[in-house]
Design goal:
297 residues; alpha/beta; Nucleotidyltransferase, domain 5; 2 domains; six-stranded mixed sheet; five-stranded mixed sheet; 13 helices; 11 strands; 24% strand; globular
Length: 297
């Protein structure tokens, strides 16, 4: 079974095709294709409230390219999901309709809670019965999920993201609300809290920290890496640290979001599984198709 996920984010658009190798005792997936295209829809939306004509033109071409890849790989099922930039754009629904009519694919514009549900599917296998605060920082929003005893007990989405902060369109009141939410929900009775970070920026920090998969990095180490990156110019980040141009400018704002939340939660370390929204979508598609087969039989 071949499954595809398209994550239409505020800073970039990600396309992934995976094949199911085994599903006993747990799902084993192999990545067949991955494309990350740096189309920053959040730049338009967070500054003007609309996606520009230039961006719409690129977006439609990209959707056509992805549609062709789906056909070439003979994908069994797929799902296109758009997050904060598309859902906040004045012309977002108009673009969704145009893409459906012109390209033949439907884009699900999902809210923060739905986004958190998908990511929960992707990270759940990495968690034990300890207390975790999951921090997912995107271009336009940050999703926080609190886990204890293996269960998610609280979730909240905030309009604070790397692109918003970079372009100074974030709200001080929203920062206050996020701080208040963290401090109200992280109780002493939960004991030690470990942060779980998802998103391309924290993955890059983890890579630069030279940490081994499955290991945590300390908040002190995250700060050291943040300070090291900040000491480089944008050009040096691209050529010396091997960053994409659209990663080089947002990684410091994103780092500061992770660090603020960790400080508020008194989380001394962070676990960084290499998964995100696209992986959660693929797990969702797998579960949907397996359920459908059971119904047919």
């Amino acid at each position: 079974m071949k499954l595809a996920a398209i994550d239409i984010g505020s800073n970039a658009i990600r396309f992934q095709i995976s094949t199911v190798l085994d599903h006993s005792p747990q799902v084993l997936l192999k990545k067949l294709e991955y494309v990350r295209f740096p189309l920053r829809l959040g730049h338009d939306v967070f500054s003007s409230g609309r996606i520009s004509e230039k961006s719409i033109g690129k977006f439609k071409k990209l959707m056509k390219a992805f549609r062709l890849l789906l056909e070439l790989y003979e994908v069994d099922d797929y799902m296109f999901c758009a997050t904060s930039a598309m859902r906040e754009s004045e012309n977002g629904q108009e673009i969704v309709t145009q893409v459906q009519e012109e390209v033949g694919v439907f884009i699900h514009v999902i809210d923060g809670n739905r986004e958190a549900e998908f990511i929960n599917r992707a990270i759940s296998s990495y968690l034990s019965s300890k207390t975790y605060l999951h921090i997912d920082v995107g271009g336009g929003s940050t999703e926080l999920n609190l886990y204890t005893d293996g269960k998610k007990i609280k979730t909240r989405s905030f309009k604070i993201g790397s692109v918003r902060v970079l372009e100074h369109t974030d709200s001080p009141i929203m920062w206050q609300h996020m701080e208040q939410w963290v401090k109200e929900n992280i109780k002493k009775s939960y004991g030690k809290v470990t942060a779980v970070g998802t998103g391309g920026n924290i993955s890059k920090i983890f890579e630069l920290a030279l940490s081994k998969p499955g290991k945590t990095i300390s908040i002190k180490k995250v700060k050291q890496i943040r300070d090291m990156i900040e000491s480089y110019s944008l050009e040096e980040r691209i050529y010396k640290l091997q960053m994409n141009p659209d990663r080089a400018d947002v990684i410091i704002p994103a780092s500061n979001i992770y660090l603020k939340v960790m400080e508020w939660a008194h989380a001394g370390s962070i676990l960084v599984p290499e998964v995100g929204l696209k992986d959660g979508i693929i797990f969702h598609l797998y579960e949907k198709n397996i359920l459908q087969k059971k119904i047919e039989f």
